[in-house]
């Protein structure tokens, strides 16, 4: 009998997630039925949204999440043994799926496309949800044009690092905001960002006056809070904002996701377009984004970094480290 290691959500997160909020257990897997397959996790994704949406988790059930897994047993001809599959199985080492998209608006599960010599883990990052979030939200909501000044928060993360590089592909002046000089140097020296701001030590307002004297045209925001307020004050008339997330709020005892009065005022007075878009609304075009990102990776136009940790036993610790900004690029567990 196959046994799975599973991280269950046992108590609502209050402030920073605590080890007592979750539980690592073993679960015996039942035999698969006709139309199903059994998959063994190879790589599991750790993402900020897991904290932001944790209120929707079910007590006593696995924490949500996507993984790349190997099909080890199958009674579904569309998902044969030996193939790799991308699926939303949660934080667990084995899972059973019928291959159906539930709900139908999701792109997963799907067989891993041909990615050449790249590690399958990229299907959780640059060639997965984070990559497509950068691709669809930035291009559709920010509509970058050559010469635009683009500001990206959480710029050293899985999404922000790709947004900035797409901005450079489109001929933009890109400013990344991150939490350390080491991350900032990676953005500039390795990824081609024009400038970086260390939000922990720099005066963001003063830096933007110096680095973007003509104002900001596009803002890709994954952080919210005071940092966002400052950037909104530098937006040009008719600027475009992609509201991707509010990491600064996720771990507060009492999160406040409402827009501040200063942001509302900036939107009205400057005629800003400030929108959000659920990336899974583009599930029908999922492979269009993946294929374009894959092309850019192969051409050397997009680079990526992964923070990979071995062992599902370490998944919760990696989750917290990612939320605290201790990782760079995509956080991944290698099962």
TrEMBL record:
Residues 158-286 form the Alcohol dehydrogenase-like C-terminal domain. Its EC number is 1.3.1.48, 1.3.1.74. GO terms for biological process: prostaglandin metabolic process. It is an enzyme of class 1 (oxidoreductase). It is found in: Cytoplasm. GO terms for molecular function: 15-oxoprostaglandin 13-reductase [NAD(P)+] activity; 2-alkenal reductase [NAD(P)H] activity. Keywords: Acetylation, Fatty acid metabolism, Hydroxylation, Lipid metabolism, NADP, Oxidoreductase, Phosphoprotein, Prostaglandin metabolism. InterPro entries: ADH-like_C, ADH_N_2, GroES-like_sf, MDR_fam, NAD(P)-bd_dom_sf, PTGR1. It catalyses: 13,14-dihydro-15-oxo-prostaglandin F1alpha + NADP(+) = 15-oxoprostaglandin F1alpha + NADPH + H(+); 20-hydroxy-leukotriene B4 + NADP(+) = 12-oxo-20-hydroxy-leukotriene B4 + NADPH + H(+); nonan-2-one + NADP(+) = (3E)-nonen-2-one + NADPH + H(+); decanal + NADP(+) = (2E)-decenal + NADPH + H(+). The keyword Protein transport does not apply. It comes from the Eukaryota. Residues 5-101 form the Oxidoreductase N-terminal domain. The keyword Phosphoprotein applies. Pfam families: ADH_N_2, ADH_zinc_N. GO terms for cellular component: cytoplasm. Its main location: cytoplasm. CDD domains: leukotriene_B4_DH_like. Monomer or homodimer. Belongs to the NADP-dependent oxidoreductase L4BD family. This is Prostaglandin reductase 1. It comes from Diabrotica balteata.
């Amino acid at each position: 009998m196959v046994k799975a290691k599973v991280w269950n959500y046992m108590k609502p997160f209050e402030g920073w997630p605590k080890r007592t909020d979750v539980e690592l257990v073993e679960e015996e897997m039942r035999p698969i039925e006709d139309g199903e397959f059994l998959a063994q996790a190879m790589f599991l994704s750790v993402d900020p949204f897991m904290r932001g949406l944790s209120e929707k988790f079910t007590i006593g059930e696995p924490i949500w999440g996507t993984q790349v897994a190997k099909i080890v047993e199958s009674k579904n001809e569309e998902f044969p043994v030996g193939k790799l599959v991308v699926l939303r199985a949660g934080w667990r080492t084995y899972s059973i799926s019928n291959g159906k998209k539930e709900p139908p608006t999701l792109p997963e599960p799907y067989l891993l496309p041909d990615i050449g010599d790249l590690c399958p883990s990229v299907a959780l990052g640059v060639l997965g949800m984070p990559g497509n979030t950068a691709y669809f939200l930035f291009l559709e909501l920010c509509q970058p044009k050559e010469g635009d000044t683009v500001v990206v928060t959480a710029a050293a993360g899985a999404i922000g690092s790709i947004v900035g590089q797409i901005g450079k592909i489109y001929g933009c002046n890109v400013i990344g905001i991150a939490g350390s000089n080491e991350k900032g140097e990676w953005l500039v020296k390795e990824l081609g960002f024009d400038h970086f701001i260390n939000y922990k030590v720099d005066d963001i307002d003063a830096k933007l006056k110096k680095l973007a004297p003509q104002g900001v045209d596009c803002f890709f925001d994954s952080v919210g809070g005071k940092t966002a307020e400052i950037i909104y004050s530098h937006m040009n008339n008719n600027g475009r904002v992609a509201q991707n997330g509010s990491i600064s709020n996720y771990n507060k005892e009492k999160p406040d996701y409402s827009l501040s009065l200063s942001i509302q005022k900036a939107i009205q007075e400057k005629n800003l377009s400030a929108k959000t878009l659920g990336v899974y609304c583009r599930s029908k075009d999922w492979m269009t984004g993946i294929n374009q990102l894959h092309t850019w990776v192969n051409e050397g136009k997009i680079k990526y970094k992964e923070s990979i940790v071995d062992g599902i036993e370490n998944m919760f610790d990696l989750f917290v480290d990612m939320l605290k900004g201790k990782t760079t690029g995509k956080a991944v567990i290698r099962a």
